[in-house]
Structure formats: C-alpha cells, structure tokens
Write a structure and sequence with these properties.
The chain is of the alpha+beta class and 400 residues long. The chain is 34% helix and 24% strand. Helix 1 packs across helix 3, helix 3 packs across helix 11 and helix 7 runs antiparallel to helix 8. Bound molecules: (2S)-amino(hydroxy)ethanoic acid and manganese (II) ion (2 copies).
C-alpha cells in the first residue's frame, strides 16, 4: 500500500462529510486509527504498545543502544486535513516496512511514534503526549475542560487511562535521535518549486485566553455612549492585533476562537472571551508580543469601560533542530535527487519538545496552496513518497 492509499485509508477514521478529518485527543476515532496501524505493524513483525500518555509506540527491536525514533501525530484539529501529522506517522511506517522488505538489519532499535494530542485542539493541551514522553509534568493539565464540559482526566479515564500514571510514559532516556516528516503547512516550498524543506528551527508559540467583562444590557434601549460592550472591545483588539503582527516581519498572531455572553440578538454582550495564538522564531520576539498584547488590550478595555483578564494557556520556546541532523537530512535529500531548502517552521511540532532532550531533525513536503488545518489540505503523492525516501535514507544511516 503506497502512502497515498494509506492516508486515504487512515482518513476513514474520523472522516467527515466535508472531506475533513476530526480525530480529537482521547476520542474513539484516534484509538481506532491506532489499532489499524498496529495491525499493519504486526504483519511486518513490529511489536507496538500504547503508553500511559496515549502515545502509540511501534518498535523494531535491535541491539541495546538508544533508539532512532521517528514519528509525528494522528490527532487532528476539528475538520482538519488528512496529511497534518498522519503523513509523518504513515510515511515513517512505510520507511520501516521498506527497510525491512529490503533486508535491512538495524544495529539499534527503531521506534515509530504517534504522539497523543499534538494539536491541543480539545483541551488546550498541545504536545501533551510528547511532553509526557520526555518526562515533563502534564498532570496539572488534567483539570482542563473541553467545550462539552468534559475534563481531560474524565476523557482519559473514559478511554481507559489513569491520569495518575501518565508519568510512566517517560521514555526519552531510551532514545538517541528523533526525525519527523511533516507537511510544510505553508506556501514556501510550492512558491519556490522545491520538493523538500529541511527544518532549521521551529517557532515558539504562546497561547492566551483573554476575557473582557462589561455590562449586559438591552440592545434597544441602551444609548450607544452608555454601553460597556465586551464584544466590541474584543473586536477592537482583534483588529489591532492583526495590524501589529502585519507590521512585525518575524511574527504572526491569530484569534481563532471567540465567545460572547450571554450570546443573544437583543443583548449587549456583557462578556467576551477570545483565544490568541502567537508565533515567533525568536524567544525575545515572543516576550515583546506578550507585552504588547497586555498593553493593547488593557488600553482598549480602559477606553471601553471593561475589565480584562489574560490567562496564558501555553508557551513553547523556539527550538533549533540539531545541526548534525540538518546536515544528514540535507545530504539524504541530495542523495534522493530532491530539490530542497533549509527553512524555519512557522508551525509547532512534537519535534520541538523532543528536540529539547535529544537531537531532532525535521523535513517538510510542499503543501498545495500552503493550505492546512482545512479539509482542502493536499500534498502531491509523489512529493510524499520522495519525502518518505529521504526519511528512510536518514533512518538507515542512523540505525545502520
Ligand atoms: O498549531 C500548530 O502549529 C500545530 O499544527 N499544532
Ligand atoms: Mn496541526
Ligand atoms: Mn502537525
């Protein structure tokens, strides 16, 4: 089965009418696609397990040295694409199967990983699985609540996991290096006609939740000058954020979620809550933007007669990929005849968590129209296959 077919097959799990895929953290659909892959791995003679943090770990046992790990994630954003995350896991599997079929005998174990909840789309707990895998404390996140009012702890328990045992997923000490293949999710490779991106750095991310509080009031009888309209204040901030980010070359900012309370046609919103997602390659830029956000939303709230509360949901520092793996992946791309460039990643990835503990490297394949987190996400099967071959060559060199 080629990668294109495998991706189609995997997209059945959580596939929606709109052609998108929805496999949220701890959902049944995610464990169904895990079992589908475990069955295929077992046919190749690979053992597999699901660890205490919900990570899928497929093992090609060989020798006693630290493992060569490769992988990505199988969870998605709501109605996401079929390539984001899944390509790295399925291409990784195809790479291992190809090596096995060719009689390759690794001198070190090779682990194929699918990390739990990379997206954080359900509980705001991005990189949950990879953080647990490297031994970061994630138990403080188990109280987070999804939009249905289910806590992360309840979701874990419903799926058969004990939140108190997540610490058992720590396994980074058994890993020597980590490689991840992913779609670019941006326009750079397509715009420049290149087939592979070798990632030098992964951007830092800050996630905030901002709550503005004013006064609910009658939409008809309340004069405009008397209103303390929380949603109007949020709207002013959203437009100000877009302007500020457009003025800064090296950063981007997004408000992806907004909620007005009480949420009725004829009520001036008394409260409004928004998400803020900020990305920057340099840590000092992240610091500057967090300061700007606080100053800007506080000034707007003051003018609008609103109270404001800012909650930091997450902050992930930028992570540089290991120079020796940037070099290895560049050589592997050249050896496979792939045109390539070294580039930064504007998206966050599990490699940024793993890469804080062991050398990590990433490669991208082009995304059509730079589109991602959208049912229309698409990468050319030939590019996906070439990316897999580059990954396979690099894994063979590390595990040979
Ligand atoms: O949001 C991101 O950068 C990634 O897709 N989780
Ligand atoms: Mn994603
Ligand atoms: Mn991803």
């Amino acid at each position: 089965m080629g990668i294109g077919e495998a991706l189609e097959d995997a997209a059945r799990f959580g596939g929606g009418e709109d052609g998108g895929v929805t496999r949220m953290a701890w959902d049944r659909t995610l464990f169904e696609v895990y079992e589908w892959l475990r069955a295929r791995a077992s046919e190749c003679g690979f053992v597999s397990r699901i660890d205490a943090a919900g990570n899928l770990v497929v093992v090609w046992a060989a020798g006693e040295e630290p493992a060569v790990a490769l992988g990505s994630h199988l969870d998605t954003v709501p109605s996401g694409g079929r390539f984001d995350g899944a390509l790295g896991v399925l291409a990784g599997f195809e790479a291992l199967r190809g090596l096995r079929d060719a009689g390759f005998e690794p001198s070190r174990p090779i682990w194929l990983l699918a990390f739990m909840d990379e997206e954080g789309a359900r509980f705001g707990t991005s990189m949950f699985g990879s953080k647990a895998f490297v031994g970061e404390d994630v138990t403080h996140l188990t109280g987070r609540v999804d939009q249905a009012g289910v806590t992360l702890a309840e979701a874990m328990e419903r799926a058969g996991f004990d939140p108190a045992e997540v610490v058992g997923a720590t396994a980074i000490g058994q890993v020597g290096q980590y490689l991840e293949l992913h779609i670019e999710q941006g326009p750079v490779l397509e715009r420049n006609g290149e087939q592979v991106g070798v990632v030098s750095d992964i951007c830092g991310l800050v996630g905030l939740r901002i709550r503005l509080s004013g006064e609910a009031n009658h939409a008809g009888t309340t004069p405009m000058e008397m209103r303390r309209d929380a949603l109007a204040g949020a709207a002013r901030f959203i437009v100000a954020l877009r302007g500020e980010m457009a003025a800064r070359e090296t950063c981007v900012g997004t408000v992806g979620m907004i909620e007005a309370e009480p949420g009725a046609f004829n009520v001036v919103p008394g409260a409004a809550e928004i998400s803020v997602d900020i990305r920057a390659i340099r840590a000092e830029d992240l610091d500057g933007i967090e300061r700007w956000v606080e100053e800007a939303v506080t000034a707007i709230a003051h003018e609008e007669g609103l109270d404001v509360a800012i909650e930091r949901i997450h902050r992930l520092e930028p992570t540089a990929m290991a120079p020796e793996l940037v070099d290895l992946l560049s050589r592997s791309a050249t050896a496979e005849g792939a045109t390539h460039r070294v580039m930064a990643s504007g998206a966050g990835h599990d490699a940024m968590i793993i890469g804080r503990h062991v050398p990590a490297g990433m490669i991208f394949v082009p995304s059509a129209k730079g589109l991602s987190h959208n049912p229309g996400e698409w990468s050319d099967p030939g590019d996906c296959d070439l990316g897999m071959k580059v990954l396979r060559r690099a894994v063979a060199e590390l595990a040979g």
